[in-house]
Amino acid sequence: MPPELVPQRPEYAAMNPSEWVMQHEAALRLGSFVAVLGALAIAERISPARGDTRPARRQLANLGLMLINTGLLRLVFPVLAVAVAMSVHSRGGGLFGLLGLPPWLEIGLTVLVMDAAIYAQHRLLHAVPLLWRMHRVHHSDLGFDVTLGVRFHPLEMAFSMGVKLGLVYLLGAPALGVVAFEILLAAASLFTHADFAFPPRVEPWLRAAVVTPSMHRTHHSVLRHETDSNYGFLLSAWDRLFGSYTPLPLRPEREMPIGLKQWRTPDELGLPALLLQPFRAAPVAGPAPARFADKETPDA
Ligand SMILES: [Zn+2]
What we know:
By secondary structure, the chain is mostly helical. Helix content is 57%, strand content 0%. It has one domain (79-295). It has helices at 10-13, 17-23, 25-46, 57-76, 81-90, 94-99, 103-127, 129-139, 154-171, 175-192, 203-207, 213-217, 224-227, 237-241, 271-276, 291-295. The longest helix is centred in the middle third of the chain and has 25 residues, at 103-127. The radius of gyration is 21 Å and the shape is globular. It starts with 9 loop residues before the first helix and ends in a 5-residue tail after the last helix. The structure holds zinc ion.
């Protein structure tokens, strides 16, 4: 049969690769998220950095927040960043519309600029007291494993989505760049929170380019000057460039207490309490927490 007579499914006949990615965006995001989560859960068992993956109530609270956030994004933000990108980019709007760069450069710059913006947003979340109230929910976890990568208060998720939508609009970012960034950011959030230790000879080389679990672990130290450092998600360059890089925590990673001094009792760290935490004043801090005291309260 001549090629022109071979029956083709009409929806695939004239489809280029970027259209295919757009059509399968949700499946690609979900598939990569599940694959990365599974791979890291296995890696945490093979080479744990601290042993924080032992079953505890904190993991249920973290996964509960993930489910609420997934529902929130579908209900409150039916217009996702990708849809804004498709609309603005197709009519040549935003900064990229003025510059007329080749598509591959637009995609690369979208990922780079959005990673820098998420770094800046993270610094704001720490610096502005009202924003810190949302973000401290993420920091109040007393353990550090892959489930911490999905522990965000719905208000922080909504704030973050608003920032992303505004940025995509101003940039006139291509949808493919936005999808690539969303997939990378979700994977990076899981990866940087994994209770995983790279071999000491490999870790510094990796950290020269990207944020590693060890680098981000310092950001979850109970010491405030360490918490207020290492803000990056994807590239480690932003912290070095803007003077917020802490190479090593004061105490060895295996022993250093994780979390916040003020929020450490089990009744403050269940799912309902976490949802209400932004609206509550911080309790008075107790004595400085010790790593081994945390180990005795697996429910915390
Ligand atoms: Zn933070």
